[in-house]
Amino acid sequence: MRASLIQIAVDPDESVKARRGRVASLIATQRGADLVVLPELWPVGAFAYEEFEAEAEPLRGPTHEAMAKAAADAGVWLYAGSFVERADDGTLYNTTLVFTPEGERAAAYRKIHRFGFDKGEAVMMGAGDELVTVALPQTTIGLATCYDLRFPEMFRGLVDAGAETLVVAAGWPERRRAHWTLLAQARAVENQAYVLAVGCAGTHAGVPQAGHSIVVDPWGEVLAQAGAGEEVLSVEFDPSRVAATREQFPALKDRRLGLAPPAVLG
User: What domains are defined for the chain?
Assistant: First the structure.
């Protein structure tokens, strides 16, 4: 199976409309790939909070339509990264879309863990409340976005739902790049799954992006990693290795669930 991770540079001088067209052109170059993956909030920039309200779109807005067409034109499964969705009730969400090679929407995932603590995304956007998986012909993918990577229980839930390949679209900052690589490998090892994690390049609202998109196998080995700038990271991997790894080292079978909370002493 071949996956192409497109590490998009977000330039504040490039309009959202122009970037949609440029990204569609990049997707077109990946005809023949089985899966193409885009990063988080690439239309506007993950840290460009002041732009969220103005650039918010309905679910079937311009980004949806452009990416559906791009998937169909290239004949690929497209994990289209995320955009700022405005729901019917006015709530904003950080929403990821997945399209089939025919351009049909296969899934939409609203980011569960919002970053920012008491500012930015954490206060401007609603939180998703559903884990999402999508069955591709070769593997079942589990959907996650950026800050989600820090919450292992979410990924275990995706694995329990059948995920074999965990896909993370991110706008991860350069200052925490070491965590990006470490956490991607940890999620792969503990879940005995592939991790495909794609970030952005460039600078979003003064925040340099980490780039360094990464593909990790079920043993935690890094199969490929990008640099800091815009690039396409294409990787061939064997989805059957997930089942083989879980058979060879069946750690997931030894989980103990439903343990009682610790006793309060004193």
Answer: 2-251 (3.60.110.10)
The 10s digit of each residue's pLDDT in 15-24 is 999 999 999 9
Whole-model pTM above 0.90? yes
List the structure tokens of 233: 């990271």
- List, in sequence order, every beta strand (DSSP E) within the chain: 2-7, 9-10, 35-37, 77-86, 92-99, 105-110, 133-135, 140-145, 165-169, 194-198, 201-204, 207-208, 214-216, 222-225, 231-236
Nearest-CA neighbor of 147 among 177, 119, 106, 115?
115
- Catalytic hit among 51, 57, 85, 111: 111
Would residue 200 show up in a list of annotated catalytic residues for this protein? no
Catalytic residue among 146, 164, 200, 230: 146
CB 232 within 8 A of CB 26: yes
Is 253 tagged catalytic?
no
Give the per-residue pLDDT at 176.
97
Strand ranges across the sheet with 222-225: 133-135, 140-145, 165-169, 194-198, 214-216, 222-225
- The C-alpha atoms of residue 160 and residue 63 are separated, in whole angstroms, by 31
Structure-token pair, residue 171 = 């706008």
For residue 28 the two structure tokens come to 């077109």
